[in-house]
Design goal:
By secondary structure, the chain is an alpha+beta fold. Helix content is 34%, strand content 28%. A hairpin with a 2-residue loop joins β2 and β3. The relative contact order is 0.17.
Amino acid sequence: MQITKAKTEDLAEIMEIYGRARVFMQEHGNPSQWKEGYPSTELVKKDLENGELYVCREGQDLAGVFMFSMKPDPCYERIEAGAWKNDRPYGVMHRMASAGKVRGVASFCLDWCYARCGNVRGDTHRENTVMQQVFEKNGFERCGIIYVEDGSPRIAYQRQKEAQADAFAAKE
């Protein structure tokens, strides 16, 4: 598999992948996380224009899509029922969806994000047990609860390099 920045010509297929992901979530006990057509075409185009939309390819086929940014996420400023692992700059992955054709796409994408910065945050809905399992099997730890733009809660996750954690602890 290979990760590249998404291109405008990928947009129709990306939106199909997101549509299939919504159906998958509904069929697997998560009917409310991506409701009403989320993510919208406008949001996906914004990710594309910002250079933060990525695709995972298996050969020539799109196997998955996600947003990755190294900018602080405003929704992560406040965390309840826990704390972030550190306050250092981080990458964030959002809107991960697999085309359902290749196993291990989400793990591959999370590893790619982690390789970029060694400090990655993410979040998911309490009903999204599939993504919770993906985060946890890939070394992410639950940190608490954050709230997204519409005010709904999400389980916050973070993975940091151990060397960074040790260096951070030594400075305290």
